[in-house]
Structures are given as C-alpha cells and as structure tokens.
Write a structure and sequence with these properties.
This protein has 4 helices and 6 strands, in the order βααβββββαα. By secondary structure, the chain is of the alpha+beta class. A hairpin with a 2-residue loop joins β3 and β4. α2 runs parallel beside α3. It starts with a strand and ends with a helix.
Length: about 130
C-alpha cells in the first residue's frame, strides 16, 4: 500500500489567518509523519507528504489522483486530501479533514499494537473534536 497526504502549505504555516485550520493541518502532517516513521510495522510501502502552494494544480508527488469540485461555476481543486493505493492498484481518495485524520489515526492505532514504545500523536482540540 502507498499513501500520499497533500495539504495546503499556507494553511500548514498559518498564513491564511485561520488558526483552527492550521491546527488540523499540522495534526494531519504530524500523524502522517508518525505513520511514515513506523510504516514497516503495518506493511505499508510508502507514505509521501506534499505541501501544495497556492496556484499549484494539486501537487501530486506520487499518486496521480486529484479531487475537484465545482464552486460558483468554476472547478476548484482540493489542496488537502489523502490518497491511498492498495496492492491491487485501487485508489481511495479522502478529501475531508475528518476522514484524513480518521484514517491516519487508525493507522497509528495499528502501529501501536506492534510497537515497543508509545507512538501516539497528541492532537489539537480542533482535530480531536473532528474525529470524536
């Protein structure tokens, strides 16, 4: 299995002036980094983390899937998404932050079952509320 987390670089760095979204974005990255660190324990091949800058067309680094929606008659590309490819080549795309956090924290839970040390990631209040 391969995964790629894509997040808005500006949200991650707090440049949009939305501290709640910054907290959630940073939590997603922290969780993905933890999963990547211990990926071998759950048989994952790779996990990429891509920070997309404003104006980039989705920023795919490894898995060529991009989520789009139509807003006010214009196509909007999602800059935050988790893309997974299983061993059979099936692609799953999670564009909602709560789904991204749910998938990543479930992977951390699986890793915790095999790890000899604590691998949990402390989530912000904003993220904890999203997945509760």
């Amino acid at each position: 299995m391969r995964m790629e987390l894509r997040v808005c670089k500006h949200c991650y760095e707090g440049e949009h002036g939305n501290p709640e979204k910054t907290a959630v974005t940073r939590d997603m990255v922290n969780c993905a980094e933890r999963v990547r660190e211990y990926k071998d324990l759950i048989g994952m091949d790779s996990l990429y983390i891509t920070k997309v800058k404003e104006g980039e067309p989705g920023g795919s680094e490894a898995l060529p899937a991009i989520v789009a929606s139509i807003e006010d008659g214009q196509i909007q590309l999602s800059d935050t998404q988790l893309v997974m490819e299983d061993d059979d080549g099936n692609m799953l795309v999670y564009p909602e932050p709560e789904d991204v956090l749910e998938v990543l924290t479930r992977n951390i839970d699986q890793i915790q079952q095999h790890a000899t040390e604590d691998v949990t990631v402390e989530l912000s209040t904003e993220s904890a509320e999203l997945i509760s």
